[in-house]
Amino acid sequence: MNWRGFDLGQLRSFVAVAEAGSVSAGSEQVFLSQSSVSEQLKKLEERAGQPLFVRSKQGVTATQAGGRLLDHARRILAMSEAAFEDLQGHSLDGELRIAITDYYRPHDIARILKTFSEQYPRLKLHVTVLPSATIDESAGDDAAFDIGLSLRLMTPGNRRGAAGSARVQGVVVRREKLLWAIAADAAPHVGKPFPLVLLPATCQLQRFVVKRLDELKVPFLIAHSASGVAGLQLALKAGLGIGCLNESSIGAGVVACAASLGLPALPTVEFHLLPGRAGESERVSNARAALVRLFS
């Protein structure tokens, strides 16, 4: 009997490379050398009978066939892990409340949560988008959510993140650059005062930006105020001004500002999955461990 199908290890590397956009970045996600991952991809393409990536100096992009396989691969890997967890007695059911900052991978978060739902089909998810400060301040025993994911600014004087206490440090699942962003078709020269597109003052990132510009005496005006990251992205794409976004929040039609504009350097940000609370259920603890793997 001829075996038909794909190797799980090869699929795992394939997904990592596709999501990271390069073999080097993808190999770090699966803890393998670049040469090992390249060999896996070669074997996977041979198995598929067609190219799965278009390779260039900038990295890799999935072909049409690669895009189709990517959807299948995510489901296959999720089902494989779900089967393993079930046999280990770690299958999850019941309800789970998750609070997430909208700065976290806005173009990928729906897919990540879908993968989690497919991995644990008996678990009912309730997802709420909240400001990071609200998530951190609500991390006590009476919080309205079971698991929280928040953004922290890594300022020079506070390497543990702007949110503060050790109680809510949690697990760092991702680090990203913070960038000044502008419409891709904007004029190359932006006059002063700089027109800013900001979120409300409840957003720690926007408070930092205003304070930083004031300290350096950089002239600016608030050209537009958005209620969330999605609105901020739309305003930037429409050319309403300059904004501040983490790397994964910069989508189509928006690019990082050129250094020639003279805007100040920005710090790195971290995404923290908040730690478990005393006495929390095994269901929540197991779900947190699974989300660490998916969010990282």
UniProtKB/TrEMBL annotation:
Q: What stretch or stretches form a coiled coil here?
A: none
**Sorted alphabetically, which SUPFAM superfamilies does this protein's record hold?**
Periplasmic binding protein-like II, Winged helix' DNA-binding domain
- Pfam families for the chain: HTH_1 (PF00126), LysR_substrate (PF03466)
Give one GO term, molecular function aspect. DNA-binding transcription factor activity
Q: Which UniProt keywords apply?
A: DNA-binding, Transcription, Transcription regulation
Keyword check for Nucleotide-binding, yes or no.
no
**Keyword Lipid metabolism: yes or no?**
no
Question: Which part of the chain is the HTH lysR-type domain?
Answer: 6-63
Record-stated family: Belongs to the LysR transcriptional regulatory family.
Q: State what protein this is by name.
A: Transcriptional regulator, LysR family
What is the scientific name of the source organism? Answer: Paraburkholderia phenazinium
